[in-house]
Amino acid sequence: MKKKIPMRKCILTNQMYPKKDLIRIVVNKENEVFADATGKVNGRGSYVVKNLDAVQDARNKKKLESMLDFSTEHLDPVYDEIIRLIYREDIPKR
């Protein structure tokens, strides 16, 4: 029997991807927003694809700001963290 792959929609591209190909963005009860590398932090979660071009395009067009209703100064560190997580994943495992 084949195991079902959980799918989620990326808020940047509006396309469905396997959950493991996405990074979760969380807004918690204290109204803090951050990238959740574990995917398990409490709060309202949205997903972005692990694609540098899509993230850079979103940063230039301020997509997360409009989606999550936060200012740019709140989300600049989030964009940086997403990019860091994408690069960290690209490093070959030994």
UniProtKB/TrEMBL annotation:
Signal peptide: none annotated. It comes from the Bacteria. It comes from Aliicoccus persicus. This is YlxR family protein. The lineage of its organism: Bacteria, Bacillati, Bacillota, Bacilli, Bacillales. Residues 8-83 form the YlxR domain. It holds the Pfam family YlxR.
